[in-house]
Specification:
Layout: H1 12-25, H2 30-42, H3 46-49, H4 51-74, H5 76-96, H6 100-125, H7 134-163, H8 169-185, H9 203-208, H10 213-244, H11 248-272, H12 278-298, H13 302-316, H14 319-329, H15 335-344, H16 352-363, H17 365-368, H18 370-388
Helix pairs in contact: 1-6, 1-7, 1-8, 2-10, 4-5, 4-6, 4-15, 5-6, 5-8, 6-15, 7-11, 7-14, 10-11, 10-14, 10-15, 10-16, 10-18, 11-13, 12-13, 12-18, 14-15
Length: 389
């Protein structure tokens, strides 16, 4: 079964609104800095505050497979538009009522919208770039997403400092989502079809992918890299408050530093991965990430601590993009199904933060960091398996 490519589909006019969708995708990472602000505003425990990331990422486990099935019937572009609309509604929800419940609802909607967006947008990108350029542009899409993630804590801190209310970031996000919707809506994209008797997208096809041990390895990597990053950025402001007595507004800059490193790392990765084996690249970067994360945990000087955090972000920047692109290219005839399965792994963001919150309430933020450290160690061990395969 061969992929039928429409050469007229490849144009900057079609590519730009799709890439802008990755910027909207990055809004989900605002949950990291939001957790600290919501905890402070409503006097919550770490266990309760860390329900926010769980409300976002649990939907990746629930909605990814149904989205993959529905996408096979409605199309990738349509599902992307639906996801952006849901994101806009989520961003407007806290404006209606400033309460813990409203934030739970907002982040649940954000999780649903982001799940659909990640399932649909990644394969949609393959419809507007040539096959040989897919990996590079998927990596570049993560670079665009990283820029959005980097700006989130800065905007929240600026809103808190200038207007006295960090939540003013949400109307900005709503406006950008609406702009993204309009841009993509008025951009015609012909979705690439497969030749031959391609199986109808369904749960059975998706679940059957799990019989492949290599597919399971890729899925486990995505589960834990997302869980690692969300757990870490959720803990950073609170950890800096505990370790260095930095207030949340300044501690939130640690999240921006991490995302700045990821942005730089994603950009560098889009260049280096043209010349370097992606699997060996993961092996090297994860080895350095473990060492730098240990430095982050052990350092008491704020500059040394921040240096460890920066290098960790730099080294972890390309893991998701490499694994996702490798998986989706393993069988082009099942791109929708593989995308749904891999994005289901983003539910890892709902697993690690609650565990860290319980540990933090019992023994402090520092001890909770052993959870993401263990995730990094597993990722490195799994990368050996992936390389051998």
């Amino acid at each position: 079964m061969n992929r039928v490519e429409n050469k007229s589909n490849y144009s900057v006019r079609k590519l730009l609104p799709v890439l802008f969708g990755f910027f909207v995708m990055g809004f989900v990472d605002v949950v990291g800095i939001s957790t600290g602000y919501v905890k402070q505003a409503f006097g919550l425990s770490d266990t309760l505050a860390n329900l926010l990331p769980m409300m976002v990422f649990v939907w990746f486990a629930i909605c990814s497979l149904p989205t993959g099935v529905l996408m096979g019937k409605t199309g990738r572009r349509t599902m992307t538009l639906v996801s952006i609309a849901i994101t806009a509604i989520a961003m407007l929800t806290p404006l209606a009522s400033y309460s813990f419940v409203s934030f739970l609802v907002a982040f649940a909607l954000l999780g649903i919208g982001n799940t659909i967006l990640q399932v649909a947008l990644n394969p949609l990108l393959t419809d507007v770039v040539e096959t040989r350029k897919v990996t590079g542009f998927l990596t570049f899409g993560q670079f665009v997403k990283a820029i959005s993630s980097f700006l989130g804590p800065l905007l929240a801190g600026a809103a808190a400092g200038i207007f006295g209310n960090w939540s003013y970031i949400f109307p900005v996000y709503a406006a950008v989502s609406i702009l993204s919707f309009i841009w993509l809506y008025f951009t015609p994209i012909t979705e690439i079809k497969e030749t031959g008797a391609v199986a109808t997208v369904g749960f059975g096809v998706i679940v059957s992918l799990l019989k492949d041990k290599l597919m399971l390895a890729w899925l486990s990597i995505i589960v834990l890299i997302v869980g690692f990053e969300i757990g870490l950025v959720t803990a950073i402001p609170k950890y800096l408050l505990e370790r260095c007595s930095l207030p949340l507004e300044k501690g939130g800059l640690g999240c921006s530093l991490y995302y700045a490193a990821r942005t730089l790392g994603a950009f560098a990765g889009s260049i280096l991965l043209v010349r370097i084996s992606s699997r060996r690249f993961i092996l090297f970067t994860l080895s350095i990430a473990i060492l730098s994360f240990v430095l982050f945990m052990l350092a008491e000087n704020v500059w040394v601590l921040m240096s460890g955090l920066f290098v960790t972000g730099l080294m972890c920047a390309n893991v998701f993009a490499i694994v996702f692109s490798t998986a989706i290219r393993s069988d082009a005839t099942k791109a929708n199904e593989i995308s749904a399965l891999m994005i289901m792994g983003v539910a890892g963001g709902a697993l690690i933060p609650p565990v860290m919150g319980v540990i933090a309430d019992v023994s402090g933020q520092w001890h909770s960091l052993f959870v993401p450290l263990a995730a990094l160690v597993y990722l490195l061990a799994c990368s050996f398996y992936v390389i051998k395969k």
